[in-house]
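#onboarding

Welcome to the new folks! Below is a worked example of what a typical request in this channel looks like: someone posts a single protein sequence, and someone else replies with the predicted structure as tokens. Don't worry about understanding the tokens yet, we'll cover that in week two.

Example request:
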Amino acid sequence: MNNLDSSVQAHTKLEKETTNLVLLKDRVDKYHDLSTQMSSILTIFEKRLGNLEQTILPVYQETEQLQKRQQNLEATLNCLESVLSHYDISQEVCQLIHQGPVEGSIGTFLDALAKLRAAMDYFLHHNSQSVELENVTSLFNTGCEGLNQHYSMLLKKHSAPLKPVELLDLIYIEDDSSSDEYTSFRQLSQSTREELCTISLWLEQNLREYTHIYAKERGEVVLRSLQLLKDHQKSSSWGTEALRPRHSGRQNQEPKRNTSARLQQIFEKKANKLYLRATQTLEQSTGISIKKASSHTDHLTSEDLLDGDQELDKYLVMLLGLQRLLNWERAIMRDIIPQSKHNEVFARLAYNAIELVVKDAEAITQRILRCISRKEWTSALGIFSALKRVILLQPDIERTYDAAQREQLTKVLNKLQQTGSKALEHFLDVVKGESSTNIVGQSNVPKDATVHELTSNTIWFIEHLYEHFDVIGAILAQDVLYSTQLDTILMKKALPGEERNKALLAIYISETVFNFRQYTYLDNDLLFTEKALAELNLSIMNKCEQYNDQATKHLFRLNNIHYILKSLQRSNLIDLVTLAEPECEHSYLEMIRELKTSYQKTWSKMLSGIYSLEELPKPVGGKVKDKDRSVLKERFSNFNKDFEEACKIQRGISIPDVILREGIKRDNVEHILPNYYRFFEMYSLVQFSKNPDKYVKYRPDEINALLSKLFDDSA
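Example response:
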């Protein structure tokens, strides 16, 4: 049974597979027929496509040739039109070129010039002998000249010198160019600057010269602004109006100040900025913080500031004005002139203004030298103040000017330094000259033997020199004699930079105030130095010889030496001089002591007759021998005569210092009165004359009273 079922299943499966096979063969036959038909269709399409290509390709090639011919024709027409335009451009733009550019419409004029330039290039390369080349070249040059004239006209029209008050405000604003107030000084509007910039770029690209026009016109603005400021400085109101802020925002904040005071404020700000930068640099590099030392300017009173040399103050304002104007011009130039031309234009623009300032410096220094030759030492001090301020301007000069201009302005600094050096040298020569001048029969000493004018002037001058020790030290350091003496000091004691300047000034003061000279031979060369005890002392010694009375000579020297010492102590200059002369104060004190002793010795002649009582006759019972009476008469007479003569002379002598005067009076009493008292007590009641009042004229209390009236001409 199972075998039968398996046979039936196999038979059924075979029939099914047979049916599928027949169906597969039938479909394969259909696919074969379809493939044959598709192949036939493709063959026919290929033949037709080949026929079409053979038909269309010649048409395409012919069309391409026609297109090329059309393009060539259009290019030829365009070239012909361009060539014709070169021939016609002269007539087209002739009127526009001759009329010149119009402000605000510069683009149209520049387009016309560009067309002329293109025509020039065409004729130059294709027909350089043509008349048309000459025409367009001439018209192009005319246009360029007109453009230059328009450029110059714009600069002149929109440029004007700053009024003095505006320039003074510009100085007051200082370097704060970001300030809203700074914009009030803009003369050229933005549209004008843009038009000038467009012209500058076109002229630059077309290799046309224009920088001299800009430099001339703007340089004239700077120069004229400075000249107007100079004229304003000549007005009587200059001293109180200069450098006063005039903006509404500041008018109520600052009181009206003198020019010197305002300058002092400006330069103190600069000095503080320099100090702050130096401090920050030191702290960043070393980590060391330093405390600001007090400057001598911190101790100047308002009166000191008002006493400045007004002409030098005016010049410093000019120098500040020049720097501000050129900063201003550099800012304007950046908006107009191409970067590549900045240095050239700025150099031309600034030259005449800088030359004006340099020439003014030369004129001022010549005037100051004439003042110095007349012994007007205030001008000499003014030059040091000006020099210090010019040095403070150096960072601004470094930022504002190029190398050639800095070299030009260096003449100002050098001229001031040379003048300062000559002032120091001439003052020293004056003191030395006074010490060697002693004209017989001609008195130039005070009758009352008070402090000599040379002494007071010398002390006054050196006291004010200390205020400028930094610049004076720099001047003296250039002299080999001073630098050599400084090296000697440095071998004994190390000094920082500021102290070295003080030491150099101390050496100078030592030369001025002290007098003995030291010669040292080094390698067969004579090295000359001057140390301690002054040319001034030598002058005082020489001048005292003009007095006939020995006591007056000593009192004259004592007055002057005491005045010198007290002045040095009062002004703290004694500490400065000690840098060069450590024994200075001791030397003066010793000299004063010796002069007092010498003065007391002038009473010796008067006291010689009454001093030694052992040599005089001894009274017995109030009487002396007849032969001894004449001796006592002579002793009393000589004392009275010498004492009266000395009192007469010394009442006319002045000792200005109260302590010194009272001390000398006390010394006189202590020196004279005890000797006279003993003589008086022993012989006043002795009967040596029928008229004793004729000889015994003064009681001890009367001597004391007369001695107390010495040095008082009204007594």
